[in-house]
Amino acid sequence: MTKMLASVNGGEEAEIALSGGADIIDLKDPTAGALGAVATDVIRQTVKVVAGRQPVSAVAGDLPMQPDVILAKAQEIAATGVDYVKVGFFPSDDAAACADALAPLAGKTKLIGVLFADLEPDLGLLPVLARRGFHGAMLDTAKKDGRRLLNHIPPEHLPSFVERCRSHGLAVGLAGSLEAPDIPRLLPLAPDFLGFRGALCDQSRRTNRIELEAVRQIRELIPAEQPVGRAASVDYRLLAARGYSPGAADPALGTDKIFVRDFVLPVQIGAYSFEHGHTQKVRFDVVADVLRVTHAPEDMRHVFSYDIIMDGIRTIIARGHVQLSEALAEQVAALVLEDPRVMQVKVRVEKLELGPGGVGVEIERKRASEQAHVLRPHGTASAETLFPGRGQKGSSS
């Protein structure tokens, strides 16, 4: 299950985050940069306030990539009793040396290496972190300028980062000015945790105080792990809003039609030899009949995001060449139907460059009746590279 990490500046905000249901209490000073460190006495005091109710992490600060400096600060923070120490790895020829220096500490404290999506992260560091005993790695943003993780890395390329972390035995986290609409787009990747600060704060400003209601809204978008052996009281409407579906929805609520129209992308598609080795424009039109979860939708907890459809199409075409428009349409329909809220989907795939008009296929697929009674999370798709070359345009048929 994906956990919710809430960044706080001390014990008072930690209590708010705990009350709102955060899984990990993360200490940082938002006024001092992306990974601004709070004072060690504040970390110790917060560890006492949390008192083991949830794990506590703390950032080491925006430090220069100097092995002795990095090690000294990480040791200082580890001595406060936190469960995790987050260390930023900024672009530097000495980044691997810093990881080497931290190896002895990694044997005693869970270390998380933080890479920055807006600073051309070196994914070659992932096997280095794994060899040096790091517990995990995460993507964040270094510049808090209003741009989010998904502004820097397209969603169809994030699966590559998650899969590479997993292949090296690293826990994986995603953060970077994330907002509520980002959650349904990132949950299918199944990261170990999603990190939040600004979305939890008054007016969504990361330097403001976090607010209980904002924490709760983010919490309700991330399915909580149920204690073993405990029969939970399940709010199926909230589960549906988070990507799950109850066996029997209230028929009075009916369905909504969520659509993506005139969505044109460059696609590697076609059975003819002249269609191989380059892309052509393809237009997608998708209409999904989605179970409603409330008569009065107010926020992301109550809707099926059309971003999921667009992200899914991008992910599919990022896989490589597809021979047939029919095959591409089937893949898109299957991906949309992975979400149990979707009862029916119509997909139109239209090539735009084979003549004076468009050619293609339109299909309509319904959820099998036996599948409508399954309660499960929707699945994932993957891409091969995080930062593909300019000439790599995607996949399709």
UniProtKB/TrEMBL annotation:
Pfam short name (any one): FolB
Q: What are the protein's UniProt keywords?
A: Lyase, Schiff base
**Stated name of the protein:** (5-formylfuran-3-yl)methyl phosphate synthase
Residue stretches making up the Dihydroneopterin aldolase/epimerase domain: 258-365
Role of this protein: Catalyzes the formation of 4-(hydroxymethyl)-2-furancarboxaldehyde phosphate (4-HFC-P) from two molecules of glyceraldehyde-3-P (GA-3-P).
SMART domains in alphabetical order: FolB
Per the record, which residues fall in region Disordered?
Answer: 370-397
- Tell me which EC number(s) this protein carries: 4.2.3.153
An example Gene Ontology biological process = folic acid-containing compound metabolic process
Q: Which reaction does it catalyse?
A: 2 D-glyceraldehyde 3-phosphate = 4-(hydroxymethyl)-2-furancarboxaldehyde phosphate + phosphate + 2 H2O
Give the InterPro entries listed for this entry.
4HFCP_synth, FolB_dom, GTP-CH-I_C/QueF
Highest taxon of source: Bacteria
Gene Ontology MF terms: dihydroneopterin aldolase activity
